[in-house]
């Protein structure tokens, strides 16, 4: 479970964002000042969500400290969306920059993307009794190993790393086209999704993990 440090002094945003991230499987804690952010940053956090406007300083200085002292991935989450602020944040080493108001699902997707890129995503993913150890490339359910082909495993990871998001068939094809050197088109994608469901679902006819969103694609998780 990735541990997120929220550096934000707006209590309403903190309350809603903390609850939302916890619902998405993250551990989230919040501080409202520069001093508290630097005091808490060394406590095993995997990523910081950072506002620019803080009561005792600004997020740019915090970003510099978090990067140099703790090597902590940073996503700016701020109302300051002008070009200067965005460029400054990225040049200070932030991995991403998101303007308020933000879309919660997009934020989660971009958090997971940064965690994957920086090697902070954690090695075990669990959902509906399914357990995926990404370090060992091992998939189990109820303590029983589930053998997957390279392409099936890649497809499963794409779904799990985008929980809550609707993925179109075009997006899925884009993500897995080169897995194991296999050629995948729209027809064979249907086959692979069926094979994956047959292996990981308790009842493939009534799936609870890989859900079909009619007319749009597929999604995993709420």
Describe this structure in words.
This protein has two domains: 3-117, 3-Layer(aba) Sandwich (Rossmann fold); 124-220, Winged helix-like DNA-binding domain superfamily/Winged helix DNA-binding domain (Arc Repressor Mutant, subunit A). It is 40% helix and 22% strand. Helix 6 crosses helix 8 (186-200). The protein contains eight helices and 13 strands. The chain is an alpha/beta fold. The protein is elongated. The longest helix has 15 residues, at 186-200. The protein has helices at residues 11-23, 34-40, 59-70, 83-91, 104-117, 150-160, 169-176, 186-200; strands at 3-7, 27-31, 47-50, 53-54, 57-58, 74-78, 96-99, 124-127, 130-133, 138-141, 144-145, 210-213, 217-220. The strands form four sheets. The protein has a five-stranded parallel sheet, sandwiched between helices. A four-stranded antiparallel sheet has the order 8-9-10-11, with no helix packed on it. Strands 4-5 form a two-stranded antiparallel sheet. Helix 1 links the parallel strand 1 and strand 2. The model has no long low-confidence stretch (mean pLDDT 89).
């Amino acid at each position: 479970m990735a541990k997120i440090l929220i550096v934000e002094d707006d209590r309403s945003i903190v309350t809603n964002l903390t609850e939302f991230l916890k619902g998405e499987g993250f551990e989230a804690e919040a501080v409202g000042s520069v001093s508290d952010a630097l005091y808490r940053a060394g406590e095993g956090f995997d990523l910081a969500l950072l506002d620019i406007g803080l009561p005792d300083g600004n997020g740019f200085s915090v970003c510099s400290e978090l990067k140099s002292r703790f090597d902590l991935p940073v996503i700016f989450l701020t109302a300051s969306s002008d070009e200067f602020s965005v460029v400054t944040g990225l040049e200070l080493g932030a991995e991403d920059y998101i303007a308020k108001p933000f879309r919660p699902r997009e934020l989660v997707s971009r958090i997971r993307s940064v965690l994957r890129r920086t090697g902070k995503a954690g090695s075990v993913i669990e959902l509906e009794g399914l357990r995926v150890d990404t370090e060992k490339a091992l998939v189990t359910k109820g303590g029983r190993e589930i053998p997957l082909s390279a392409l099936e495993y890649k497809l499963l990871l794409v779904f799990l790393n985008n929980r809550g998001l609707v993925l179109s068939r075009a997006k899925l094809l884009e993500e897995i086209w080169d897995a194991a050197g296999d050629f995948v088109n729209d027809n064979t994608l249907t086959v692979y999704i069926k094979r994956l469901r047959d292996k990981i679902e308790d009842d493939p006819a009534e799936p609870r993990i890989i859900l079909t969103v009619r007319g749009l694609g597929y999604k995993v998780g709420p």
